[in-house]
């Protein structure tokens, strides 16, 4: 995953790009013949002489989808560089093109056993290559199937105990910590937890609004903020099971 900008001093042009799935953010705006860009919306807005007007169609999208889809932001004339796109800025001209797209044609064939073995191989490989890092690594662990599989594969591939991080709630009926603890015990991880209380919520909401810079209606952002803080106290990068339900049809509806 990446978002970068390269200035070509010889040709006097700027080349920018964003990773295929848009995991790294990239915001930009064109103002009076200049290109402003940043990885965060709040910092980009601070660089502008005036706060842009609210972009009402983007707000309508938010009220419908509970987030603002790219390339829009809440502000007129301020955009997200779409995932899997590059941009070129030269002599006041701005050009954007897609460099990658999904392939939907099935390429696998074989028995169920063959396909299961292929899936296991790909999961093993996906985890293994992400363990090649020059910074401390860990994993977010909810105790669900997705994150538990990731932790199991990390434990199998690592010679040291995996550092795992979980967040729970003081209301026991909402907390998944018992499941996370069971997985952590099974794979002998170096486990860390944070319990979110009702008293944590007001201050957290204000911080999230400042960090996001735009409306985002995901209630899991509250516990994930504290999970990220806990994680950063011990490691720099954490693997998680996000996307597992989308990939394996895990949702019951």
Structure characterization notes:
It is a single chain. With 253 residues, the chain is α/β, with parallel strands linked by helices. The chain folds into 2 domains: 3-98, Aminohydrolase, N-terminal nucleophile (Ntn) domain (Glutamine Phosphoribosylpyrophosphate, subunit 1, domain 1, 4-Layer Sandwich); 112-248, Rossmann fold, CATH 3.40.50. It contains 8 helices and 11 strands. A 4-stranded antiparallel β-sheet has the order 1-2-6-7, with no helix packed on it. A 4-stranded parallel β-sheet has the order 10-9-8-11, with helices on both faces. Strands 4-3-5 form a 3-stranded antiparallel β-sheet. Strand 8 (137-140), helix 4 (145-157) and strand 9 form a beta-alpha-beta unit. Helix 3 (112-130) crosses helix 4. The longest helix is centred in the middle third of the chain and has 19 residues, at 112-130. The protein is globular, with a radius of gyration of 21 Å. The relative contact order is 0.12. The model has no long low-confidence stretch (mean pLDDT 93).
